[in-house]
Structures are given as structure tokens and as C-alpha cells.
Design goal:
- By secondary structure, the chain is mainly α.
- It is built from 3 helices and no strands.
- The longest helix has 31 residues.
- The two termini are 14 Å apart.
Length: 85
């Protein structure tokens, strides 16, 4: 698998995890507000949370131990020589 494809898969995984973390906040905000106009500040907060969570997962996925774990599934970013890109 090419490094570009691996990076795309890892980015998609980080995004899915970030969205999953933000969904409960979004659902609660819309349910309490009764409409999107009143929920707009909460939606902005949820978007910020999703970005922060994605950044956190990106940092965690860069750790050597996580990198080794991901390499077992073929989405690690190590080359044949064993060094990271």
C-alpha cells in the first residue's frame, strides 16, 4: 500500500473518531435548543471539539508504540528499513 493511501486511511480514522466524540454534544445541543438557530454556538463548540480530538488522535497515532500497532494492520508509516517517514 502506498504511503499516500496509508495517510488517507489514518486521516479518515482520526476524523471518524473525532466526529464520534462530538455527536453526543451535537445531539444534546439541538435537543435542548429546539432549533438550529439557538444551537449555533453549541455547534461551533462541537466543531472545535472535533478538531481538538482529531489533533489529539493524530498525535497519539504518531507515537512509536501506536505506529508499531498500526503497522500490524498495514497502515503504519514505516518503510522496509524500519525507520519512520
Amino acid at each position: 500500500m502506498s504511503p499516500e493511501n496509508k495517510r488517507a486511511i489514518r486521516t479518515a480514522l482520526q476524523t471518524v473518531l473525532a466526529i464520534a466524540a462530538a455527536v453526543p454534544l451535537l445531539a444534546a445541543a439541538i435537543a435542548q435548543a429546539g432549533g438550529l438557530n439557538e444551537a449555533a454556538p453549541w455547534l461551533a463548540g462541537a466543531a472545535s471539539e472535533a478538531v481538538a480530538v482529531a489533533a489529539g488522535f493524530a498525535r497519539i497515532m504518531a507515537l512509536p508504540s501506536v505506529e508499531a500497532f498500526l503497522d500490524r494492520f498495514g497502515i503504519g508509516l514505516t518503510d522496509e528499513g524500519g525507520s519512520t517517514e
